[in-house]
Amino acid sequence: MTIVASGPPVSTSAAVTDKGVGPHLRAWRERRRISQLELALRADSSARHISFIETGRSRPSEEMVLRLAEHLDVPVRERNALLLAAGYAPRFPETPLNDPALDGLRDGMERLIQGYEPYPALVVDAGYTVVAANRGIAMLLEGVPEKLMTPAPNAMRLTLHPEGLAPRIRNLREWRGHLLAQMERDIALQRSDRLRALYEEVSAYPVPADAPGDEPEEPVPYFALPMRIEHEGRILSFVSSISTFNTPMDVTVAELAIETFLPADAATTKYLHTLLG
């Protein structure tokens, strides 16, 4: 497995402004559809105090900003932005993935995805740049043009590009819809210009009129939406699962996601063990 440097930071629109932290906190509360009273109860405060913070009549303490951000499930990068808007220093560092301080993290991820073989697994950052992958992923990417692999492969681009995996995915329209919906949710959460540009790019890729439809030739009762992909004349079926780190204290770590692909049928399991076992 190779750890590569991730792309540029996923900047957000929660920049420091002269309006203070109040409007940003209100925007996050409204995004979560939580009332001032409910947030106050969760944060051991009062609705009046929350109102004063949001309107700028009261400046919250550093700990209050962090407490509200925790109860609003604000991403770590955005918590730094909230602290800056409130006049405090950022609390969470952003350590490059190849920094020696993250040696333990990289080793752990390597063991994890290698231990998942022969099934595919990869690690991506917040912009879907692939920072690590195992042999199962390499197998699926066989034959993909080098231009899509360098300088740093992007999972969404690799999957949806007409020269990538898209022509091999037997339920392309359905899987494409799933991936685009996932990106839309991430954009709403991260408010990232970089991520929005990626979404506009991949959503504009042409989908052939004769692209595989939403149903397999012989319907199978899958327990989750599968990705059905062709490999050397065989149709392999996978369902994916995404894991993130609990209570991260670093922006880089908070934005990493490990995606694993579980065989959705016995034939796929047998084939992978025969090929890579």
Automatic annotation (TrEMBL):
Q: Which InterPro entries match?
A: Cro/C1-type_HTH, Lambda_DNA-bd_dom_sf, MLTR_LBD
Question: Where does this protein have coiled-coil stretches?
Answer: none
Superkingdom of source: Bacteria
Listed Pfam families: HTH_3 (PF01381), MLTR_LBD (PF17765)
Organism from which the protein derives: Streptomyces lucensis JCM 4490
| Segments crossing the lipid bilayer | none
SMART domains the record matches: HTH_XRE
Q: Where is the HTH cro/C1-type domain?
A: 25-79
GO MF terms here are: DNA binding
Q: What is this protein called?
A: Transcriptional regulator
